[in-house]
Write a structure and sequence with these properties.
Blueprint: H1 7-22, E1 37-40, H2 46-49, E2 61-65, H3 70-84, E3 93-97, H4 102-109, E4 114-117, H5 121-133, E5 137-140, H6 148-164, E6 168-170, H7 178-186, E7 205-214, E8 216-217, E9 220-221, H8 242-253, H9 261-264, E10 265-273, E11 277-278, H10 279-286, E12 299-300, E13 303-304, E14 309-316, E15 319-330, E16 338-344, E17 348-353, E18 363-368, H11 374-391, E19 396-400, E20 403-407, H12 416-433, H13 440-459
Parallel strand pairs: 1-2, 1-4, 2-3, 4-5, 5-6, 7-15
Antiparallel strand pairs: 7-16, 8-9, 10-14, 11-13, 12-13, 14-15, 16-17, 17-18, 18-20, 19-20
Helix pairs in contact: 1-3, 5-6, 6-13, 7-8, 8-13
Length: 462
């Protein structure tokens, strides 16, 4: 007998999707779809963003297993909104189970072959391990581990995935951002020279990310769960957003190369610090009128101070890199999350800026080193541009006082939310091929070693 938390709750969830289905245009269902999706305990809006688009290789029926509550309702409502939108509506048919035994039920039914996991990071690593142990492929939101215990479990999960011939993969959306793509391309062409080794005081690679707790997602204010502000559940900033930055360092500096965390990574220094939130700000972003009990230790004089910020200085294959993430409550009007990135070569630097001068939109620049013969460099960079245009037609260079600005056609500027579909399509390609690139698994392990080891260093743990 199926056990539900509350029969009324289950009927309400079923009604949401019966109503949604009535708004969706009919479409011929795929014959024998390759991908049958399961969504497990969707506590983060990234789980819904995977379903912002339809995929020809995926069944429109998606099974959701979760504890009943605001988080699963928010997920279902967001997917329902995609079904009901006017332009390119999706046609997802959600089959929802919210009994207390949701996890056991998922493994018993095995209603799909790919599990999407995006939610409370306290549970995520064990969800991942149990899923691959049961023979399910996993597409997981970052971070897949938030501390050293989680890292050790994640290593075991990758071992189990190999044994059970399933694919475990994390959602690295920033690899699909065009400025990051072109930064990577230009740094492996002659005008850049070789990647500088740098030093702790002057790293060769610097990536800084600024984020905000209150923002809009799919046109509506984002409501974050209260546990998002508990570092024991969400993780600290040094193991969360830095995952993207560390991934970009590896992916851009050493493309298609295996990184062995035991010999290629050395943490030089790391630090962590908090962001102060008032009770009013907390209520605005969570809709909770009080700080829950598990946050009380982080509240002083009515101010919440989670360790959401972090910085890592480290060496990777002998190259000095620095990544830093900071969080504030809300971006100034007309702005949003920002990204700054510098990659220094022996001949030039390739830089992404996203400040006031760029109207808070990412812009890519190429700046030759001081003392460079500009006429000779211009010939070289224009030759490099031809190679870029072979892959990305229409990209141009515009000269400025410090070098060149890279002009990128609008067709390449895909929004952050749409990067999730691009990640999913890449993952589905790997599923069809039956394997990940040989460097992906060791580099995912190296990435999470970097972040979790940096947390230990910041905490003063040997």
């Amino acid at each position: 007998m199926i056990k539900f938390n509350n029969l009324k709750h289950q009927l309400l969830l079923n009604f949401i999707f019966l109503f949604s289905a009535a708004c969706v245009s009919k479409s011929e269902k795929m014959k024998e779809p390759e991908i049958r999706l399961i969504t497990l305990d969707p506590g983060h809006f990234h789980s819904a963003l995977v379903q912002k688009s339809m995929y020809p290789e995926m069944d429109s029926v998606v099974h959701v297993y979760a504890p009943y509550g605001d988080e699963v309702k928010a997920h279902l409502n967001l997917v329902s909104a995609y079904n009901k939108r006017k332009e390119e509506p999706t046609r997802w048919n959600q089959k929802v189970y919210t009994g207390d035994d949701y996890l056991e039920r998922m493994f018993k039914e095995k209603a799909g072959n790919v599990v999407v996991i995006a939610g409370n990071n306290k549970f995520k690593t064990n969800y991942i391990k149990q899923s691959v142990d049961s023979g399910l492929n996993v597409l997981a939101d970052k971070p897949m581990a938030i501390d050293t215990d989680g890292f050790n479990t994640l290593v075991q999960a990758f071992e189990a995935a190999e044994k059970n011939k399933v694919l475990l993969y994390d959602i690295m959306t920033e690899r699909f951002e065009i400025n990051s793509i072109l930064q990577k391309e230009f740094t492996h062409l002659p005008a850049f020279g070789e990647l500088d080794k740098g030093s702790p005081e002057n790293p060769s690679v610097t990536k800084i990310s600024v984020h905000y707790f209150f923002k809009n997602v799919s046109g509506k204010p984002l409501v974050r769960p209260a546990w998002f502000f508990d570092v024991k559940q969400q993780g600290e900033g040094i193991t969360d957003i830095t995952t993207h930055l560390v991934d970009l360092v590896q992916w851009e500096c050493f493309p298609d190369q295996v990184i062995d965390y035991k010999k290629d990574i050395e943490i030089v220094s790391a630090k962590r610090w908090g962001t102060q939130l008032t009770a009013a700000q907390f209520e605005k972003v969570t809709l909770k009128k009080e700080f829950p009990a598990y946050l009380k230790t982080d509240v002083k004089n009515g101010i919440l101070n989670p360790y959401s910020n972090g910085e890592i200085n480290y060496r990777i294959k002998g190259v000095h890199a620095k990544v830093s993430v900071t969080w504030d409550f809300q971006a100034p009007e007309g702005t949003g999350d920002t990204h700054f990135s510098v990659m220094r070569g022996t001949k030039a630097s390739v830089i992404i800026k996203q400040g006031k001068d760029q109207n808070f939109k990412p812009v890519l620049y190429i700046e030759p080193k001081s003392g460079t013969d500009m006429k000779e460099f211009e010939q070289e960079i224009m030759s490099d541009l031809k190679k870029i245009n072979a892959k990305y037609p229409g990209v141009e260079l515009q000269k400025n006082s410090r070098g060149w600005e890279v002009l990128i056609p609008e067709k390449y500027k895909v929004g952050h939310e749409d990067h999730f579909a691009q990640v999913a399509q890449k993952y589905f390609q790997y599923l069809r091929e039956g394997r990940l690139p040989v460097w992906e698994v060791p580099n995912m392990i190296a990435k999470y070693y970097t972040t979790t080891k940096a947390r230990e260093v910041a905490l003063g743990i040997d």
